[in-house]
Amino acid sequence: MSAPRRLGLRLLLLLALPAGARAQQSLPARLADRFQPAASGVIGIADHRVDAGLGFERTSGLLLGVQVEATPLEGTLLSVRALGGALGAHTPSTDARDVGEIAATARMRLVPWLDARAGLTTRTFTSSLARQRWTSAAIGADLRMTMLEGRLEGTAGAQLLPFVRVSGHESPNASFGASMGLRYVARRYLVGLGYQLERYDFPSVADRRRLEEHTMLTLRAAYRFGRMTRATAD
User: Domain 36-224 - what CATH class?
Assistant: First the structure.
């Protein structure tokens, strides 16, 4: 091989090796650009109310947790949230309890002002006497309104819970939920305030109707990875 050819081959190798290294180094960045992941810290104030026909029970307390989310396709958002804490008793003859919750939610943008959503939640209450597990599936929709060129967004939604299973009880006759949210986005940072309500109407036992209500006010702060784009709804 002549000297000019050897020199040309060496130059090609020198150019190709850094390019390959750059491609490997940029893989995490490309994945972040593709899925737009975000990680959040979450603080919640939860309230649980029960009316079983024998007296009203109420517990409430502070919950802490994390949330992760990603955008696999344009106009969609997948999120998983885990929360846990202790609920103190606020009524006589009511036991304090620990609560843990994991919720997965999928959202799809239908039109600029409307999102469809579906979710699966598992929640466990543990007291000194017993442990109760809730599993529910929800479908619903959220109305959206944006301001400040999309940096500020408000949402209001309603959900039906067609599947609810509670250990130790029959499934409720009717279950529904409602939610409201407000979030502000500043470059890669996001701050969100949310409120959600769930209402369960159980079958009567011995002519006693059982109603349960879960409400929670949440505050979360998030950091978003990847290339900056207009995020989907919170």
Answer: mainly beta
